[in-house]
């Protein structure tokens, strides 16, 4: 498992996480009774959606052996190597509004997105 310092290495973290997204994820992790010193948010890419690929997120108790692990704003983020190829350099944010609230990935690698913004193509 490769690890980045919380400030990032010279190349920077694989994904930038905003303070708002980290605070929301940490609150959810703690609500699940998970140890935030070991557990983290897994960010991944999977086949699916009308554009071909979609984002996935879940909480994991610990990283897998080949995960890229970074910590930002106290939140540990786990990314598997194949997902990193699609989302390296992306930003994870949390948006809340009158119509919807949730995590949002701003990905500079995306060539096109479907109309609903739930899937993408690189």
TrEMBL record:
Every Core domain range:
15-118
GO terms, biological process = iron-sulfur cluster assembly
Q: Which GO terms describe its molecular function?
A: 2 iron, 2 sulfur cluster binding; 4 iron, 4 sulfur cluster binding; iron ion binding
PROSITE patterns in the record, alphabetically?
A: HESB (PS01152)
The secretion signal range is none
Q: Which domain of life is it from?
A: Archaea
Q: Enumerate the Pfam families for this protein.
A: Fe-S_biosyn (PF01521)
Name of the protein in question: Iron-sulfur cluster assembly accessory protein
| Species of origin | Halorarum halophilum
């Amino acid at each position: 498992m490769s690890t980045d310092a919380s400030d990032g290495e010279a190349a920077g973290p694989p994904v930038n996480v905003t303070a708002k997204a980290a605070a929301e994820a940490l609150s959810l992790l703690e609500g699940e009774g998970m140890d935030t010193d070991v557990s983290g948010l897994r960010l991944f890419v999977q086949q699916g959606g009308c554009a071909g690929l979609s984002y996935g997120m879940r909480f994991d108790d610990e990283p897998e052996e080949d995960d890229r692990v970074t910590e930002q704003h106290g939140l540990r983020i786990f990314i598997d190597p194949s997902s990193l190829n699609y989302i390296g350099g992306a930003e994870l944010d949390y948006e809340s509004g009158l119509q919807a609230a949730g995590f949002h990935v701003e990905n500079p690698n995306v060539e096109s997105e479907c109309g609903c913004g739930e899937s993408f193509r690189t």
